[in-house]
Design a protein that fits this description.
This protein is α/β, with parallel strands linked by helices. 34% of the residues lie in helices and 24% in strands. The protein contains eleven helices and 13 strands. The strands form four sheets. The protein has a five-stranded mixed β-sheet with strand order 1-7-6-4-5, sandwiched between helices. A hairpin with a 3-residue loop joins strand 12 and strand 13. Helix 8 crosses helix 9. It is globular. Bound molecules: acetyl coenzyme *A.
Length: 324
């Protein structure tokens, strides 16, 4: 089996900023409540004309340029998300066309754990020698499925895309992957209508069932537990200990979830990269966006050992250890 690593990364956020003060004008909330309960100060919002592939292409083109790769050299495109352009065709195929690539592509749905799931899938194709260059993109326009009348969810999410190019490496690379799911918790975080269970109808629209519904408290408890368990499992599988990890890149949902995980793991909080204050929860784009910004800030060097960990709708979770 070949070793697999990250050849390059890219990310994109739309320019429009929605601050907590802006949210105060939309629903019964305060900057103080949002900041103390979540750590979020602002988030990015896509334009009406922008679908997830429009964000994804920007992140993908940056990652391709950073890898010095032409789109035609890609062997596979995997797009993960919860806000695909359409139920079908796959957003990966739309992206393939827009990029001018000729390779196969498919979408992967694993909630906010999407990027870690997609990295693990892409890594298999490279490890077994089938492909050399794989583009993995987490692209989200969550603003399109947020209920802007629901204060308990509309302050949490934002729009973004992140892209990773996977390739074979001689040294370092991914040392472990851990994936998990508990479908019994699916109801805790869902978009009830628009699928085959509840097709679009006058009733589904009038009952606002095409928007995110979440039991925040139960998702919070689940998140804190799986962040700890999945991180420890991935580190153990990699043959490492907690002390060996230079940087933790957690899913950026809520600062209190990240701080609780740091406390439970007994890891200094400054080892956890945080940018949710500026972007909110960008679902499957979040871990890649954090990785990209950590790289730009010089927090990642050759040989750095990085733990990425995420959780989300499904319920799902995932973690991986990467040696840069
Ligand atoms: N402004 C003011 N008050 C609010 C707001 C708001 N924006 N939202 C909720 N409240 C109120 C509630 O109505 C409640 O009032 P009540 O006590 O009178 O009923 C009170 O604040 C406390 O509500 P809780 O839900 O208990 O608040 P909590 O401290 O749990 O924080 C939060 C809520 C931020 C949603 C938290 O539970 C959380 O972060 N959960 C995890 C969510 C998450 O990570 N989701 C993403 C999963 S990833 C994916 O796949 C998309």
């Amino acid at each position: 089996m070949r070793k697999v690593g990250i050849a390059s990364i890219g990310a994109y956020v739309p320019p429009k900023i929605l601050t907590n003060n802006d949210s105060e004008k939309m629903v019964d909330t305060t900057d103080e409540w949002i900041t103390t309960r979540t750590g979020i100060k602002e988030r990015r919002i896509a334009e009406d004309w922008q679908a997830s592939s429009d964000l994804a292409i920007q992140a993908a083109q940056l990652a391709l340029a950073n890898a010095n790769l032409e789109a035609k050299e890609l062997d596979l495109i995997i797009v993960c998300g919860v806000t695909f352009d359409y139920p079908f065709p796959a957003t990966a195929c739309i992206l393939q066309d827009k990029l001018g690539a000729t390779c196969p592509g498919f979408d992967l749905s694993a909630g906010c754990s999407g990027l870690i799931y997609a990295l693990s899938v892409g890594a298999q194709f490279i490890a077994n020698g089938m492909y050399d260059n794989i583009l993995v993109v987490g692209g989200e326009t969550l603003s399109k499925i947020i209920d802007w009348q629901d204060r308990s969810t509309c302050v949490l999410f934002g729009d973004a895309a992140s892209a990773v190019i996977l390739g074979p490496v001689d040294t370092g690379g991914f040392r472990s992957f851990v994936l998990g799911a508990d479908g019994g918790g699916g109801k805790l975080l869902e978009l009830p209508a628009g699928g085959s269970r509840l097709p679009a109808s006058y009733e589904t629209i009038s009952q606002r069932l095409h928007f995110i519904k979440m039991n925040g408290r139960d998702v919070f408890k689940f998140a804190v537990r799986v962040m700890e368990e999945a991180s420890l499992e991935a580190i153990d599988k990699a043959g490492l200990t907690l002390k060996d990890i230079d940087l933790f890149i957690p899913h950026q949902a809520n600062i209190r979830i990240i701080e609780s995980a740091a406390e439970r793991l007994n890891v200094p909080k400054d080892k956890f990269f945080v940018n949710l204050d500026r972007y909110g929860n960008t679902s499957s784009a979040s871990v890649g966006l954090a990785l990209y910004e950590a790289f730009l800030e010089g927090k990642i060097q050759k040989g750095s050992k990085i733990l990425m960990v995420g959780f989300g709708a499904g319920l799902t979770w995932g973690a991986c250890v990467l040696e840069w």
